[in-house]
Design brief:
Strand order of the largest sheet: 7-8-6-9-10-11-12-13-14
Distance between the termini: 52 Å
Number of domains: 3
Structural class: alpha/beta
Shape: globular
Radius of gyration: 23 Å
């Protein structure tokens, strides 16, 4: 890791813990900063804060007192989930204190190239798939970000001979100053997270931040099928590589006559790819384009694409039991992701859906519910989803308390040949800490069926 002096003897506030806050606080302490950690959870219920306290780091728990701004902090490293209208954050910005996220630290210390992947949907699959292709191509990749170990922790161990493949959210990308991935990927941009960003324009701008510091030595991989995304990234200084699932391009990654091509070189027949769902073709094209920047061979790409079956919690096959196939798509935290999952099946579907209410309705799902014979709802959005299902003509709609109870109800109202699909179309935070927790509970409930 680069031994930077940026934070040496500087007062830095780490606001909010979880994995990113713990990593940032420990790293800043190593870099010689005077670190204060502030977390909303009381100290007695906060093992992360207790651990930092044992390292000699100052910890203030049980709220976010505005008086902290009087302590002369020179930087704030904010947990991505804390909104910018939080009084402490808003007050810091008003005072001109830089408010960063932990990925900025990762970039500052990393000796490895960073490949940053963002977008509304497909980030996790693209990140994992690219990691596997780079591994097969002997490129020494490391995986980081929302998908696993936080970026600032991975960056501490990364060498110049490695590549960091990092999944990035809009929340993280709002808190960067110098962060510059050598390769940036924007899978797609749709409406999401308006409860945090306020407008779709602000959300898109946060995503496009991924390329703001790139130079002509860097690369930006962009979805050519989205005109608004093409327009928003037109002024980048990076070399643009387009991908498209719908048209043949003069260069970049595209599909033609049943084959994937890159820069007019035929790579693989679509029929040989085992990752299910038309929506995954975007993710595959992104990964192929990024791999080709590093001169990965076609043999390595083919090896992965003929064996890679997907990511846990993203249309993940769980089991077949009594003629029903169960799929865990807990990472479907918005309608668009659920549309993709529904489109992946031709069989009758029993759909399990619901979660955090962000203020939107679900009527855009109606055209995609044609194969859904039964809906089982849970969470804050249960009534909204019920209304949508009624408009779609679904006769069998049931409400339960949670995902665990949804599984036996779904099974009871299914038949042999049906798909039972958890694809919530909502974030998990009304009932579960993460979408992974929600998915794991679903998997456990499926295996308990007798």
């Amino acid at each position: 890791m680069k031994n930077i002096t940026t934070y040496q003897h500087k007062k830095v506030l780490v606001l909010g813990l979880a994995k990113s806050g713990v990593s940032a606080a420990s790293l800043l302490h190593k870099l010689g900063a005077f670190v204060t950690v502030n977390d909303y959870k009381p100290l007695a219920e906060n093992p992360e804060a207790q651990g930092l306290l044992q390292q000699g780091i100052k910890v203030i728990c049980g709220g976010h007192p505005i008086e902290l701004l009087d302590e002369g902090f020179q930087y704030i490293i904010k947990n991505p989930g804390i909104p910018y209208d939080n009084p402490l954050v808003a007050g810091a910005i008003k005072k001109g204190i830089p408010v960063l996220t932990e990925v900025e630290l990762a970039y500052q210390i990393s000796e490895a190239d960073i490949i940053g992947i963002t977008g509304t949907n497909g980030k996790t699959t693209t990140t994992t798939l690219l990691y596997e292709i780079l591994s097969a191509g002997n490129q020494n990749p490391l995986i980081a970000g929302n998908i696993g170990t936080v970026a600032s922790e991975v960056a501490q161990k990364a060498s110049e001979h490695e590549k960091m493949v990092v999944e990035l959210s809009s929340f993280q990308l709002m808190g960067i100053e110098d962060f510059t991935p050598h390769v940036a990927i924007i899978t797609n941009l749709y409406e999401a997270h308006l409860d945090y960003h306020g407008t779709i324009e602000d959300y898109w701008e946060a995503k496009v931040n991924i390329t703001k510091n790139q130079s002509e030595k860097d690369y930006l991989i962009v979805n050519a099928d989205q005109e608004h995304l093409v327009e928003m990234t037109a002024k980048t200084n990076a070399q643009i590589i387009f991908f498209s699932t719908s048209k043949v391009l003069h260069s970049g990654a595209y599909i033609n006559n049943g084959y994937i091509y890159f820069n007019n070189e035929r790579i693989i027949n679509l029929g040989s790819i085992v990752l299910p769902g038309a929506h995954n073709l975007e993710n595959i094209l992104c990964a192929v384009a990024a791999a080709k920047i590093y001169n990965v061979s076609n043999d390595a790409i083919i090896e992965v694409l003929t064996t890679f079956k997907g990511v846990k919690h993203r249309t993940q096959f769980v089991r077949e039991w009594n003629g029903r196939r169960f799929y865990n798509d807990s990472k479907a935290t918005n309608s668009l992701a659920t549309k993709s999952a529904l489109n992946a099946f031709e069989e009758p579907i029993v759909l399990l859906a619901g979660g955090l209410d962000r203020g939107n309705d679900f009527d855009d799902l109606i055209p995609f519910l044609k194969n859904v014979k039964c809906l089982v709802t849970f969470g804050e959005t249960a009534n909204k989803l019920k209304s949508t299902a009624e408009l779609a003509g679904i006769s069998f709609i049931y409400h339960v308390d949670n995902v665990e109870k949804a599984v036996p109800v779904a099974y009871t109202h299914s038949e042999k040949g049906d798909v039972i699909l958890l694809s919530p179309a909502c974030a998990s935070w009304d009932q579960y800490r993460t979408f992974e927790e929600r998915g794991d509970i679903f998997i456990e409930a499926v295996h308990k069926l007798k």
